[in-house]
Design goal:
Helix content: 10-25%
Largest sheet: 7 strands, antiparallel
Order of helices and strands: EEEEHHHEEEEHEEE
Number of strands: 11
Strand content: 35-45%
Structural class: alpha+beta
Shape: globular
Mean pLDDT: 83
Radius of gyration: 37 Å
Distance between the termini: 72 Å
Length: 212
């Protein structure tokens, strides 16, 4: 399976991939077969996938030659590597997907970044040109290929079940009845008669009324 496109939508993922299989024909001979598959997943993306895509922000602004690239170049000029960059300076950039073309067998493999840039009340949808993983014109093609590979691994892990679990909200105040207290019932007297020295006498005692 080779991932050719992955796009984040509402924290879920749309994936396109090429699947190759070896089939046996009627003569009993192996035949190579392939098909392109487009799938929609509705599970919530794990944070590690979102973070992997976020690492493409510096490459996106550099490859697209945006004014925001200055914020990246300044950090690189101060000796920081791509893996140490402060991505907060690019908080107006959001990565929404990648497209992978070509083949690593003939050295033609390349990738494009799909991203958005917020400018005031406007949101610009931008797709970078395809950059080969060994492109000499782009001075950070090695770092670029590593980040893309990490994104692909996270997409494959997502397809294999690595997703974020939405915690169910539970209201512990519902479904529980407040414990009621029963007020003491008034005590009542019990009177009985008995003879004492041949004289009828009433003797009173106090008992607690039972509560059903």
């Amino acid at each position: 399976m080779k991932i050719t496109k992955a796009k984040i939508k509402n924290r879920s993922l749309d994936v396109e991939y090429n699947e190759k299989k070896t089939l046996i024909n009627q003569e009993g001979e192996p035949v190579e077969s392939s098909r392109d598959v487009a799938a929609k997943y509705y599970d919530i993306c794990h944070d590690s996938l979102i973070n992997a895509f976020d690492q493409l922000k510096p490459h996106a602004v550099l490859i697209a030659d945006l004014r925001d690239a200055i914020k990246v170049e300044d950090q690189l000029a101060n000796g920081l590597s791509f893996y140490e960059l402060d991505l907060e300076v690019l908080k107006n950039i959001s990565i929404s997907g990648i497209v992978i073309t070509g083949s690593d067998e003939d050295g033609s493999e390349a990738a494009m970044i799909i991203f958005q840039k917020k400018t005031g009340n406007r949101t610009l949808n931008i797709t970078t040109p395809a950059v080969k993983f060994d492109d000499e014109e782009y001075g950070f093609s090695h770092e670029f290929s590593e980040v893309i590979q990490n994104c692909v691994e996270e997409v494959e892990a997502y397809m294999g079940g690595k997703v974020a679990v939405k915690q169910l909200e539970m209201n512990f105040d519902e479904g529980f009845e407040q414990e009621s207290t029963i007020a003491d019932e008034p005590k009542k007297k019990k009177t009985r008669k008995m003879k004492l020295g041949g004289v009828d006498v009433e003797v009173s005692s106090v008992e607690q009324q039972e509560v059903a």
